[in-house]
């Protein structure tokens, strides 16, 4: 897979180096003249997106509004016959069901006639028509997250459908190929959230497993359910196909912590619905899948040494309390996409797509609220895990500060010891800022509350959690440029390690505890 990505990047660079020769052979030379005739620009036509020309000139690559100039030369496109060609490639978690549903909803809202041609098990073409004219063709390829990034870097795809941020290697390849820094630019958008879960048959009496248990099972070190209080049956491991993305995510989030590798399964399914059906009917089966595809199987809760259980459900994934969330994302290149593609991405990022996302069994990006009294499990854990550095006065201060407030589902998370946000949290900044601009919180107060893990002195953790809360507040305020901040009060507070969401004995538990929550007064 790595070799394939490298070959695609090399191929792209080779085409880029050969571009002048190809341009001469295809005679793509153009002259652009301003409407008043005062400015004239010569160059090679690179592309046309329905609105703007991309022209390689002696001044470099320029993007020019086609409405402001007249084009002459063999390379000029026919503006009346333009059809936007858009390719989407990546994980089947998006390509198999959600993206087709989003394309249909986008077509309905935009009053396009939509035709779909299924070319094979992994490829479909969607044709958008308006007034009997073809406006756009969208080719959808179900490949994998790695292939989606590879296609984006090689400019084979306009939108990569992925479940993670790019790796360091992928970032370097993207910059080399001229696609841009995929992390620094606004090129990744979270579309929906799913979760990685372990499922079993309802007839197996085990209800929860620890991360160590899962590592022991999925590495093949423990092979019988009796070791965990279940029936005396061998554990029948069931995996999704490699292209689903869930396996790679599970390896990175669970197995790598214990320096273990996934052992070979007894069964592997390309269709997650078939996987869940097999597990639900097979008493000894233990499967890996996503929360949206559990069918009639039972989901196992996660338990830690401190006794707290993380129960995977839509609410815990939405609130980011469940640690193994899969952010399903669109990544785009630095170049300008055709207008139809930009409108589609805007639609997917808007509340108009939330119903489609929920119907697919996924978590949308809308902001919800929850009363303080509905969070008894969190308060019980805070009391249970309170150590020498957290006393009753800290817990009392927390209850006094938050007891009358509502917690929003928007949560911001950080890397270890840092104030930089992850991909999902960067999306939360945009969502919260947009809500502020629309006046959703007018007359209310948003309190950004920082929390930490218990690594290091409590006093230092309190300071760090305050810094994180203030950093998020400032970032949201800067992003909400059109919000009337005279009508919204923003404040920051911090409680350090006083309200943990998970046991601190694992890296994922500490990551869950390092966060900024948003509370509404």
Tags for this model:
521 residues, alpha+beta, 11-stranded mixed β-sheet, 5-stranded antiparallel β-sheet, 16 helices, 24 strands, 33% helix, 27% strand, globular, disordered N terminus
Describe the structure in your own words.
The chain is an alpha+beta fold and 521 residues long. The chain is built from 16 helices and 24 strands. The strands form four sheets. Strands 6, 7, 8, 9, 10, 11, 13, 14, 15, 16 and 19 form an eleven-stranded mixed beta sheet that branches. Strands 4-3-2-1-5 form a five-stranded antiparallel beta sheet, covered by helices on one side. The chain has a five-stranded mixed beta sheet with strand order 20-21-24-22-23. Helix 14 (423-437) crosses helix 15 (458-479). The longest helix is centred in the N-terminal third of the chain and has 25 residues, at 2-26. It starts with a helix and ends with a strand.
Summarize the structure.
The protein is α+β, with helices and mostly antiparallel strands and 521 residues long.
Mean pLDDT: 84
Q: Give me the number of helical elements.
A: 16
Give the overall shape.
Answer: globular
Distance between the termini: 50 Å
Biggest sheet details:
11 strands, mixed
Using the CA coordinates, give the radius of gyration.
26 Å
The low-confidence parts are: 1-25
| Approximate strand percentage | 25-35%
Structural class: alpha+beta
Q: Approximately how much helix is present in the residues?
A: 25-40%
For the secondary structure, the number of strands is 24
């Amino acid at each position: 897979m790595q070799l394939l990505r490298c070959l695609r990047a090399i191929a792209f660079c080779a085409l880029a180096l050969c571009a002048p020769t190809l341009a001469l052979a295809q005679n793509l030379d153009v002259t652009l003249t301003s409407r008043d005739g005062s400015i004239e620009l010569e160059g090679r036509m690179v592309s046309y997106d329905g609105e703007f020309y991309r022209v390689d000139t002696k001044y470099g690559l320029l993007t020019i509004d086609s409405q402001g100039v007249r084009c002459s030369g063999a390379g000029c496109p026919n503006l009346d016959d333009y059809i936007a060609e858009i390719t989407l490639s990546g994980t089947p978690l998006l390509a198999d069901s959600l993206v087709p549903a989003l394309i249909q909803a986008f077509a309905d809202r935009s009053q396009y006639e939509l035709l779909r041609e299924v070319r094979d098990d992994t490829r479909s073409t969607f044709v958008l028509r308006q007034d009997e004219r073809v406006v756009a063709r969208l080719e959808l390829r179900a490949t994998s997250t790695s292939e989606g990034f590879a296609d984006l870097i090689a400019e084979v795809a306009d939108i990569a459908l992925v479940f993670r941020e790019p790796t360091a290697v992928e970032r370097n390849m993207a910059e080399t190929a001229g696609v841009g820094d995929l992390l620094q630019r606004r090129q990744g958008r979270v579309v929906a959230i799913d979760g990685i879960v372990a499922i079993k048959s309802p007839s197996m009496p085990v209800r929860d497993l620890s991360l160590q248990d899962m590592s022991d099972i999925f590495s093949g070190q423990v092979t019988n359910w009796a070791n965990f209080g279940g029936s005396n049956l061998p554990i029948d491991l069931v995996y999704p196909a490699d292209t689903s993305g869930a396996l790679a995510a599970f390896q990175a989030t669970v197995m790598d912590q214990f320096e273990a590798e996934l052992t070979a399964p007894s069964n592997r399914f390309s269709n997650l619905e078939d996987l869940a059906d097999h597990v639900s009917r097979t008493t000894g089966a233990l499967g890996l899948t996503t929360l949206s595809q559990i069918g009639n199987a039972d989901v196992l809760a996660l338990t830690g040494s401190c006794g707290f259980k993380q129960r995977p459900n839509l609410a815990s994934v939405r609130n980011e309390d469940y640690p193994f969330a899969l952010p399903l994302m669109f990544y785009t290149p630095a170049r300008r996409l055709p207008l139809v593609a930009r409108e589609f991405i805007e639609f997917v990022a808007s509340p108009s797509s939330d119903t489609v996302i929920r119907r697919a069994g996924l978590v949308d990006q809308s902001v919800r609220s929850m009363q303080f009294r509905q969070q008894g499990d969190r308060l019980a854990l805070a009391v249970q895990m309170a150590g020498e550095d957290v006393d009753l006065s800290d817990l009392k201060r927390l209850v006094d500060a938050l007891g009358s407030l509502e917690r929003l589902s928007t949560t911001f998370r950080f890397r270890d010891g840092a104030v930089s946000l992850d991909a999902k949290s960067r999306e939360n900044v945009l969502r919260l800022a947009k809500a502020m601009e629309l006046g959703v919180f007018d007359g209310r107060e948003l309190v950004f509350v920082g929390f930490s893990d218990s690594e290091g002195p409590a006093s230092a953790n309190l300071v760090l959690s305050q810094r994180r809360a203030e950093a998020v507040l400032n970032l949201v305020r800067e992003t909400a440029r059109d919000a009337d901040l005279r009508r919204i009060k923003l404040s920051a507070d911090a409680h350090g390690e006083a309200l943990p969401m998970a046991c601190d004995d694992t890296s994922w538990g500490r990551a869950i505890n390092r966060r900024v929550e948003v509370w509404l007064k």
